[in-house]
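Limitations

Structures in this collection are predictions, not experimental determinations, and the ligand pose is part of the prediction. Treat each record accordingly. The example that follows, with adenosine-5'-diphosphate as the small molecule, is included so readers can see exactly what is and is not provided: the inputs are given verbatim, and the output is the predicted complex.
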Amino acid sequence: MLHGFVTFEGIDGSGKTTVSRLVAKSLQAQGHRVYLTSEPTRTWLGEAVRHAFDGEVGAVAESFLFLADRAAHLKEIQSHLEKRELVLCDRYADSTYAYQGARLEGLVDDPIRFLQRASESWMLRPDLTILLRVPVELARKRIEGRPNLVRFEDVAFLKKVAANYDRLARSRRFVVLDGTRSTDAISLDALSAIQKRLTRLRKR
Ligand code: ADP
Ligand code: TYD
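Predicted complex:
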């Protein structure tokens, strides 16, 4: 039985929601106990975060709202990990580093480091993070029909986010997948990365 903590990351439209659902379904069909969750959460803190995006509270307040939502979510994640389930999370800490890292540019020194320092002492590190890499233009095309596109229209902003993801992905915690392929092909690669990483970690 596989257990551990796996996160899915990438820019909007990279396919995280589609792929994490397909992966969860396959793992469940194989008999694993899977808990699929996402951020921002569906709680009032997650809703507060979405408000922060609509209104202009500023990048610092926005950053700490995302961290607050995560801190509360972590309790729920921990409770499933304690039951030795396999937790899959559609967006997690690297979303804050990549997006708020871009938003905080010019406001604080080394934004990603600033955000990591504010969270690493209480945060749970994923066993594996799967980054779906897709060119900004293609990702944007995929989500053109979405209602709240204001932020996503800013291609320059999303390019900074993508560059932040690439920087974060230098860590060995990451596996980077080409997200331009079919969802089935991506899901198969994600499944094999999960199997490999969690089996190796549990052998230690
Ligand atoms: P995200 O959660 O990263 O924002 P979604 O999974 O919601 O992305 O996908 C955004 C849109 O792109 C959806 O309409 C989805 O059906 C489509 N999509 C996702 N992955 C692929 C893919 N690999 N190829 C083509 N379309 C895709
Ligand atoms: P999204 O995955 O689209 O969730 P939902 O569709 O449920 O609202 O996330 C909403 C936006 O929030 C998306 O543009 C990415 C952004 N975001 C951050 O900027 N920082 C974070 O820490 C997280 C989790 C998301």
